[in-house]
Specification:
Elements lengths: L3 H15 L3 E7 L16 H11 L2 E9 L2 E6 L4 E5 L4 E7 L8 E2 L2 E2 L12 E7 L2 E7 L5 E5 L2 H6 L17 H9 L5 H6 L9 H11 L12 H20 L40 E5 L2 E5 L6
Antiparallel strand pairs: 1-2, 1-8, 2-3, 3-4, 4-10, 5-9, 6-7, 8-9, 11-12
Helix pairs in contact: 1-7, 4-7, 6-7
The chain binds a DNA duplex (16 and 16 nucleotides) through helix 6.
Length: 301
DNA sequence: CACTAAACCTGGGAGC
DNA sequence: TGCTCCCAGGTTTAGT
């Protein structure tokens, strides 16, 4: 899936298009997607009806993000929570036939040809100014409706999430303290979202490469200097990736179907067996927490 | 507790 | 052209 830069780029591309729009009609073609996370998802007709009734005739007031979740605040006081998991997409088609190109960080992003709806458009929302499609090839994602902030908070969806790396609150001392309180290898720690959120398999490897730290290193062996390098790498890589619309490795797209260009900046992700772009050493591949992990044995210690 | 593997799914690419 | 196997941006849950 999209990691933080992709979810954030999607959010930024959605805001000018659908904040202020009213949801008129909702169609749920894949009922399990509106139900709670989990491995086997079964959904009652009542649950689907609650989802549809909660969203119809309500206005999208704002769109926020926590970790890799998108949070739509509705004029009714209700909340729509969207998680894209591996292959989710939110694509908007305007009623107007205009070519409206995505502009992220001041730079227009190249458009792709996206047919909407398509065979994986499983939830379709008709807005007053266009249509919003939730597509998801692998069907891992979910869209959850909560009738109020109180109900949403009571469910404790975000309770184990760590620091938001793009926030002002992401300060060095907090990061250092939190990381020192954990054990286990640093890559696994990034993937589990408990210290800092938003890094996934791509950005965990990219950050560790930039910081010069091996992904296999146990947190209790990391020096203060090394942790500082990791902290600084996060602060450089994530904003830059957002500015470039994220990494479109396979099917990640923004609201208008355009693709992000940060994949061109990848130093290690997807480059196992190739030469390190800094020192020329062959990049090594290993598996950590069941995920393919790429690193440079020379640049990372 | 900590860690790993499986589960949820479809599709693209590699190799034969 | 087609088959089989492996792999994929995430996260939860079952099993050791």
């Amino acid at each position: 899936m999209p990691e933080l830069p992709e979810v954030e780029s999607l959010r930024l591309s959605l805001i000018p298009r659908i904040v202020g729009s009213t949801i008129q009609k909702v169609r749920v073609l894949m009922p399990k997607l509106v139900s709670s996370k989990g491995t086997t998802r079964t959904v009652s007709n009542t649950k689907v009806a609650e989802f549809i009734n909660g969203l119809e005739d309500t206005k999208i007031v704002s769109i926020n993000r926590r970790a890799k979740n998108l949070i739509f605040n509705l004029s009714s006081g209700g909340i729509l929570l969207v998680h894209l998991k591996m292959t989710g997409q939110l694509a908007f088609k305007s009623n107007k036939n205009s070519h409206d190109k995505a502009v992220i960080g001041g730079h227009p992003i190249q458009e792709s040809e996206l047919v909407l709806p398509n065979k994986h458009s499983y939830i379709i929302m008709q807005l007053d100014n266009g249509s919003l499609y939730y597509n998801d090839v692998r069907q891992f994602g979910y869209l959850l409706y909560f009738k109020s902030l109180e109900v949403f908070e009571a469910e404790g969806h975000f309770e184990n999430l760590g620091l938001e790396p793009l926030d002002q609150e992401f300060i060095w001392q907090d990061f250092y303290t939190k990381i020192k309180a954990k054990t286990g290898n640093i890559k696994k720690l990034f993937l589990d979202q408990t210290v800092v959120v938003g890094l996934g398999n791509i950005y965990a490897d990219e950050v560790l490469f930039r910081a010069g730290v091996l992904p296999t290193r146990n947190t209790n062996s990391l020096t203060k200097v090394e942790i500082k390098k990791i902290y600084e790498a996060i602060l450089v890589i994530l904003p830059k990736a957002v500015n470039m619309g994220g990494s479109s490795v396979a099917n990640y797209i923004m609201a208008d179907g355009s693709r992000g260009t940060y994949a061109h900046e990848h130093m290690v992700y997807g480059r196992g067996g190739k030469e390190c772009l800094v020192c020329g050493t062959i990049l090594q591949k290993t598996v950590i927490a069941s995920r393919t992990t790429i690193f440079c044995p020379e640049c990372q210690k």
